[in-house]
Amino acid sequence: MANVGSLKNELASKKTTGVGTAGSSIKGMLESPAIKKRFEEVLDKKAPQFMSSVVNLVNGDTNLRKVDQMSVIASVMVAATLDLPVDKNLGYAWVVPYGDKAQFQLGYKGYVQLALRTGQYKSINVVEICEGELIKWNQLTEELVIDFEKRLSDVVVGYAGYFELVNGFRKTVYWTKEQIEKHRKKFSKSPFGWSKDFDAMAKKTVLRNMLSKWGILSIEMQTAYKGDMNTVNAAAVDSGNVDENIEYLDIDFSVNEEGINEPHYEPVEVHP
């Protein structure tokens, strides 16, 4: 494994806030022996294809080319350790420009994928509920009655999430669109995603909240949850096995309109 000090020096020497020369571009950084070796350790034979997708991702996004490329490397390494593609068209994970830094962001499909990998989920889903489809929702008993044949329009009024574990435990949640909007205004630091695909971000919010409170979270899922839209430091590139190292993620705090610092994620609850 690459030496921590040598890798940090390697990254520091290639730090850039713009497109830069070939040596300081994302392609040049990925060709660094230390960084290349780290990706190969994590992804094995899939490393070349993954690194090629990172180059295409950055070259195809003007905003990503403007941010600190070291933060891009750190962000895609989180996706690599989770074995999730960063192709924005697939919707599993994204690298999001935020100020002059890049941040890792997990899509709702990524949460579903990580949940299924645990082998503990018999089924898991989240869907939009349109006007007329919601018949009944009891927040206490979690009795949710939906009739998709009664849709009055394509206007989305809420989002329903559901999972069943292999041991028979089930969970159903329902969020109104107003609840989603309130959550977005309180916790979202970046408009990325919400302006492009509000429904996908809303479904992610429902899944993320439901799984963190009532689901079975593997170490891999905890890592993804902790890293989702939080600042990732360069040490992520040189961290050890993901099952043993989730501390390399720096939790960032956002500032609300009142100037109060507050974390934009909820505490993770792990259920044995």
Which helices and strands, and how do they pair?
Layout: H1 4-13, H2 26-30, H3 33-43, H4 47-59, H5 62-66, H6 69-81, E1 93-98, E2 101-106, H7 108-117, E3 121-130, E4 134-138, E5 143-146, E6 156-165, E7 170-176, H8 177-187, H9 198-214, H10 219-227, E8 253-255, E9 261-263
Antiparallel strand pairs: 1-2, 3-6, 4-5, 6-7, 8-9
Helix pairs in contact: 3-4, 7-9
Task: Choose one word for the global shape.
Answer: globular
What is the beta-strand fraction? 15-25%
Strand order of the largest sheet: 3-6-7
Note the main sheet: 3 strands, antiparallel
Kindly, what is the distance between the CA atoms of the first and last residues, rounded to a whole number of angstroms? 32 Å
Helix content: 25-40%
Q: What is the structural class?
A: alpha+beta
Instruction: Specify the number of helices.
Output: 10
Averaged pLDDT, please? 78
Order of SSEs? HHHHHHEEHEEEEEHHHEE
- Annotation, overall tally of beta strands: 9
- C-alpha Rg, in Å? 20 Å
Q: Low-confidence runs (pLDDT<50, min 5 residues)?
A: 1-8, 14-23, 233-272
